[in-house]
Each structure stands twice: as C-alpha cells, then as structure tokens.
Amino acid sequence: GSHMPEELQEKSEEILPAEILNGLVDSNWKNRLAAVEQLLGEISGFDAKQAGISQILIRTISGRKPGLKEMNFQVLKFKLDIIRSVAENYPLTTTTVDLVINEIIEKLADAKNGAAAADVLSAFAEATKLEYVVGKVLSFAFEQKSPKVQSEAFNWVNRSIIEFGFQLQPKTLIEDVRKGVQSTNPTVRASAIQMVGTMSMYMGKALMMFFDSEKPALKSQIQVEFDKNVGEKPPKPVRGVQRSSGGT
Description:
The protein folds into 2 domains: 1-128, Alpha Horseshoe (Leucine-rich Repeat Variant); 130-240, Leucine-rich Repeat Variant. Helices cover 66% and strands 0% of the residues. It is built from 12 helices and no strands. It has helices spanning 6-15, 18-24, 29-42, 53-63, 73-89, 94-106, 114-127, 130-144, 147-164, 170-181, 186-203, 216-229. Helix 2 (18-24) packs across helix 3 (29-42), helix 3 (29-42) packs parallel to helix 5 and helix 10 (170-181) runs antiparallel to helix 11 (186-203). The longest helix is centred in the middle third of the chain and has 18 residues, at 147-164.
C-alpha cells in the first residue's frame, strides 16, 4: 500500500486526534466506522490556509490501511464522503486527485457505493477541471476491461456533460464513445449510445458523421438516440459555475 511520507504523517498527527488516527486502522470495523463518522463531522473545520491540507486529509483516508480497500461498505461510504467533502471545502491539485482517482473510478462498479464514488469524481471535476477528470475516467475504464466500470464511466461522463455543460474537447470524447458503441457488451454499448444522444444536443448534426462507418443495425440504434436529442436545447449548467459567485 502507499505509505504516507513522514512529513505528512506528522502533519496528520498535528491536525487529527489520536482516536481518529487509531480508529482508521482498527481491525474492528465498528471502531473504523466510529472514526470515519467523527472525521466526516469535522471535515469542514480545518484551516484552509494550512499548506497541503487536502493532500494530508486524503492521504490519511487512503494511505492508512485498509485505506480504500475497505471491505465494510458503511465504512467505505464514509471514506468516499470524506474525500468528496475535502474536495468541496479545500483547494485541490491534480497531484492529490491522482493519488486516489483510479481507486475511486473502480468503485463506480460497486453496487452499494457506486453513487458515492460518482459524487467524488464530480467534486474532483469541480475542484480541478472537468476535462482532466473525464480523461482519467475514460482511460482507466478502458484499461480495466470491466464492463460494469466502463458502462458506469459513460454514465458518469454523460451526467457530467449535462451538469457542467460541454467543457470538453469533442475529438477525444468521440474516440472513446466510438470504442463504447463498438463494445461487445450490451450495457456498455447502451451507455455509450446514450452519451451520443447527449453530445448531439451540443454538437448538432455534425456528430452523426463520425458513426457513418458503423454496421447498419448499430448505426440505426445510434440514429434513434441521436434523433431524440438533436435540436433540443441543452440544460443550463449547474456545476462548475465559479465558486466565488457568492454561492457556498
């Protein structure tokens, strides 16, 4: 597992009570649960000016065994909510995002905690850049070869486009969505086709030409989804609208 660098270990000991730090590594899940519950309650109370605060907190959650390999679904849910809350409350760099993002993406396939994992990714995108996180999500999903991770990755990107607006380079997205529609897995294919529909609201008729060479049956499926959405007015973005606009 990833061991915390000494200076971060010391900093986490300065800012977190021993009961939380010890509780995180306790072999009894009930004690781990108490620790994460307590930490989540305190997450917005740290000094935002403390250097590297988000990295200290995220490493504390992910780097202390069992970290994100937590087997108890309730404890894991709190850990994901803590990471999301850190991203919502403190400045966050892509370096810190990179420490945990692959483990978070993998959890999209988790029946009990997939939604919490998706919310972490959205918070990461809002704290850094949507394009950065989308790139990570899609490249990891295709490396994983897990159909469940792939379909949920498309679902997350699809939702993100709707929530953030189309703040993405179409070219890279089209390459990945084409891989998706060509998948032999029906669930992955359906998620990718749905994403084509969403993209068509932003890109219009030009989008369909990228699917010209697909097999007729697949092409007509894509066309159905495309026709449903093309010409629709995209919804107003609800995320990634500058934080400094007097909102929370």
